[in-house]
Write a structure and sequence with these properties.
Length: 342
């Protein structure tokens, strides 16, 4: 952010580009970290004993089902490293989180891309892409960058058709924001046999992206395998105490959901007034069809001090992605976009 402000000679830039929490970090997490500062000369608890137990309680799973990561990114990396051999295939949507492809390639395995259908993950097409070489399937629900989500019913039908030896990863980085009650939840499908992994993170709704802490929920045998592949102190001690405090900060969680949902509704209404096409979302961000080069819109918005994300690299050359911000940030975004597109 500082770099962009310097480069473009702007100040007070508004960043609506990375799906972060506009309210900042959970205040209870900040207080817990301040308390823990005096113990930073000690190594972290390598097993993340207390955080694991607290998460298990909250999610109603066993501690043996959990793997902690330096962000959920690291858990994705543990999966690809532990499970993939050269030449194995990994099925994912064409427009999805870039780490799936990057980490698959790092393991010398082959990403198999499946196009979206009407901006949503096409579960039938994903099934059709499975071959005897398929080891892993990555699904994001709600999806980044489209914000669409599939239902429990759709996922149930999908999961029953996946060969039992294929590991299905359900990346739920944005699940807390979903307003549609029908949206699938990995917790309803986890059992100790079917190799299903639910991925969650403290980076979004808990406001702790800079700390790097996320986790996976999976059958104990798979968790045990992943835990053998990780660094002994992968989740640092501040991240552990902050995540535990953030889980208890229900006040902050509620405020976050309120701000994000109100922000989305405010932005949708503003875009309706401007006659600009957008795609309502189950996450804390959404896509806008700007009907011109998204790179140029990105640049023009930057000059107005508003940082958003161009979707060119995701295969949508005329789309931008915007994260819901604070009321004043959303107003500034709408004003700038109105000017840029007029
Ligand atoms: C933000 C995000 C994550 C979270 O990554 P962390 O490493 O936990 O910060 C995971 N998956 C998707 C699709 C995301 O957008």
């Amino acid at each position: 952010m500082e770099e962009l402000e310097r480069e473009y000679g702007i100040s007070n830039a508004v960043k609506l580009a990375s799906n972060e929490n506009p309210l900042g970090p959970s205040p209870m997490a900040v207080a817990a970290m301040q308390q823990a500062m005096g113990k930073l000369h000690r190594y972290p608890d390598g097993s993340g004993y207390y955080l694991t137990r607290k998460l298990a309680d909250k999610m109603k799973v066993a501690p043996e089902n959990l793997v902690l990561g330096n962000g959920s990114d690291e858990v994705i990396g543990m999966l690809t490293r532990a499970l993939l051999a050269p030449g194995d295939e990994v099925v994912m949507s064409r427009s999805s989180f870039s780490m799936y492809e990057i980490l698959t390639r790092l393991a010398n395995a082959k990403p198999v891309f499946v196009p979206l259908s009407a901006m949503a993950i096409d579960l039938d097409a994903i099934l059709a892409a499975i071959t005897p070489r398929t080891r892993l399937i990555f699904l994001t629900n709600p999806n980044n960058p489209t914000g669409m989500a599939f239902s429990a019913e759709q996922f149930d039908r999908f999961l029953k058709a996946v060969p039992p030896e294929v590991v299905v990863v359900l990346d739920e980085a944005y699940i807390e924001f979903a307003r549609d009650e029908a949206v699938a939840d990995s917790l309803d499908f986890l059992n100790d046999v079917r190799p299903l992994v639910g991925l969650r993170t403290f980076s979004k709704v808990y406001g702790l992206a800079g700390l790097r802490v996320g986790y996976g929920m999976m059958p104990p045998a798979l968790a045990e395998l992943l835990n053998r592949t990780r660094q002994p102190f992968n989740v640092n001690s501040l991240a552990q105490v902050a995540a535990m405090a953030a889980i208890d900060d229900t006040d902050f969680l509620q405020k976050t959901l309120q701000v994000v949902h109100d922000g989305l509704d405010f932005l949708y209404a503003g875009l309706d007034r401007l006659g600009i096409e957008y795609f309502p979302s189950q996450a804390n961000f959404f896509l806008i069809n700007v009907k011109r080069d998204a790179g140029e819109v990105f640049e023009a918005m930057l000059r107005q001090g508003v940082i958003i994300r161009s979707m060119i690299s995701y295969g949508y050359p005329e789309f931008i992605r915007v994260t819901a911000g604070l009321p004043a940030e959303n107003e500034r975004f709408l004003k700038a976009l109105g000017e840029v597109l007029s």
